[in-house]
Design a protein that fits this description.
Elements lengths: L1 H33 L2 H9 L14 H7 L3 H9 L14 H5 L4 H9 L14 H7 L3 H9 L14 H7 L3 H9 L11 H28 L9 H6 L11 E2 L2 E8 L2 E8 L9 E5 L4 E4 L20
Antiparallel strand pairs: 1-2, 2-3, 3-4, 4-5
Helix pairs in contact: 1-2, 1-3, 3-4, 4-6, 6-8, 7-8, 7-9, 8-10, 9-10
Amino acid sequence: MTTRIISSAFLMMFLSVPVYTQDVNLELIEAGEKGETENIERLLAAGAEVDAKDEKGVTALMHASAESHTQSVEVLLAAGADVNAKANDGLSALMVVARGNTKIVGALLDAGADVNAEAQHGVTPLMVAVAMGNRTIVRALLDAGADVDARADSGVTALILSERNGFVEIAALLKKAGAIVTEPGRPQDTLLANESSAINTVGEIVVAQFNYSASDGEGHYAKNLPELIEAGLIASELATGMQNGYQFATSVEGETFTVHADPILPGETGARHFFADESGVIRWSMEGPATVFSPGFGESEPGPE
């Protein structure tokens, strides 16, 4: 009888370990998203797997990179995080941070990030950095060996993107690195499909903000996409803020909220930029980020001032 009791207790302890591990893994991913560095260290010490992924294949390092949590990124890298891990959509940590955080880009490159890793549609970190107009990151990626003539699925290159956006200095930098000057035709159907998807997603985020406010005791709106995801109001696939060629963001300004959707590669993954606020009207612009003054769907003139 004693042997049977001991064996049963041992079996229950053994079976409970994976559940505990899974819990700390999910906590680690969330801590990476929020930039909770001390919590990350605690969870790693408790046995969390540094490269654990959520259902979308996103790791704590990817989340921390996307949210520009530099200290958290450094801690995860020091713990041995796989710098080249990819989410289900092909995004890597370097891909999601190439749009703006120079220090994190440097840390990822120093840790061995694949500078030519491709995401959906053949987009590379260099293309993202060029599309964002970040000359410092463009130079860093080129110095790290980025393929200056890499082409997206439709044939677009970093140089083409720089010239379309009028980034003269970046174009000169790319040409100095040996970029070839050619521009094939673009598949219009893909571009329009991405824009249609972006419009739908903006609408979903607007509805999510209203629902978040309704469920909040004080009527507050969510400060960012992670808060809407955590509340279960939008899909977790928006954890990186990128989807179908667009970059999405929401924020609170005073007593209202705003939603922005901008093509990752303007002119390639989308031609129009979108904006919405608590009015529910989705506005668009062909000349850079849309604002409250941009025309809305069904309007031919700019919105109210």
